[in-house]
Amino acid sequence: MVNGLDLNYTAGQVPQQTYMTAPQQVTTAGAKVTEQMPDTFLSTTKSAASSAVLFEGIPLLNLFIRSKKATGKTISEGMKLIGLENKTALKQLLHGEGKLSQRILDFISSANKSKQAYMAERSSVKALNKSLKASKKLEKITKKLSQVSDSNLGKLKNKFLEFCKKHIQSKATKAESKAAEKAAQAATARTVINTTQAAGKLGKVRNFLKSSGAGIMLIFSGVSECISEVIPTFKELGAKKGMKQAGKSAVKVLGDTVGFIGGEQVGVALGTAIGTAIFPGIGSAVGAVCGLVGGFLGSWAMGKVTKAITGKSEREIAKEQQTQPQEELQNNPFQQLNQVV
């Protein structure tokens, strides 16, 4: 071996993979990773649980910390009010009047509204925390201004501090205004938890995709399919097969997203019920975590359905067509002899 290359290779016989470009490497790596990922219920559940800890656990911890700094209480008043609404919804589910099926549907709707209210409460506490920080900075700069002497150096320092005060005062005013706006949105979201009314802007599709993980799933599934299937199919089998695979991948991405939304709705309701029964103040937070897990499981289940609808990928079909003649030849050793004769 010389520098990792066999001496049998001449200058014109360098292995082709040496010249593989970066985009080709990314595409190949993406396809290999997708093929090697385990596709079982258990592995999907483990992966979903890890994602839930990252995407919902950390924001919940930040909410506790910010609420403690801003109000002196780990559980904010908004979270307590959401918990009371959840208790009312859970009581209606377990002991209310009407058909059980309708009560379940009503609780799913209520739980998902409470999750949106919880998301609004997170934004409200974050904005309040920023407003209080800006106010404290303004107090400090005002205190320093009162301590400046009348000397020339003091006057220069005074001008600088006055400039800083105006800048911080502007930021503090904006932060206070935003905090009030977010608090109003959180209050509006809370008032509709146990009603048939939509939570204003929170009820719109765009805001639903933003407050849930459906938008992320749509992007993730689309990018994954593009890297692992669509691009390699265009490259290996041409435009016609590539367009056909693009259609199959579109169905899969749509199925993944629809499955995620359905699974998330059920997961949020189940998690909210469990969390509310144990500790009402964090019932919606538990619902958000379970909703993400349920969303991934729903997406996994719908993936099985869309796979049955679209069938094998174009690359899988092409691979089978290439290996089939070789298998026939191995099964019939006299075939090649007959062809010669």
What are the SSEs and their pairings?
Blueprint: H1 22-36, H2 41-71, H3 77-95, H4 100-146, H5 152-191, H6 205-211, H7 214-237, H8 239-278, H9 283-310, H10 314-331, H11 335-340
Helix pairs in contact: 1-7, 2-4, 2-9, 3-4, 3-8, 4-5, 4-8, 4-9, 7-8, 8-9
Give the topology string: H per helix, E per strand.
HHHHHHHHHHH
Spans of 5+ residues with little confidence (pLDDT < 50)?
1-27, 29-35
Mean of residue pLDDT?
81
Radius of gyration, in Å, reads 30 Å
> What separation lies between the terminal Cα atoms?
45 Å
User: How many β-strand stretches?
Assistant: 0
- Beta-strand residue fraction: under 5%
What's this entry about, in short?
With 341 residues, this protein is mainly alpha-helical.
Description:
The chain is mainly α. The chain contains 11 helices and no strands. Helix 3 runs antiparallel to helix 4, helix 3 crosses helix 8 and helix 8 packs antiparallel against helix 9.
State the main characteristics.
single chain; 341 residues; mainly alpha; 11 helices; 81% helix; flat; disordered N terminus
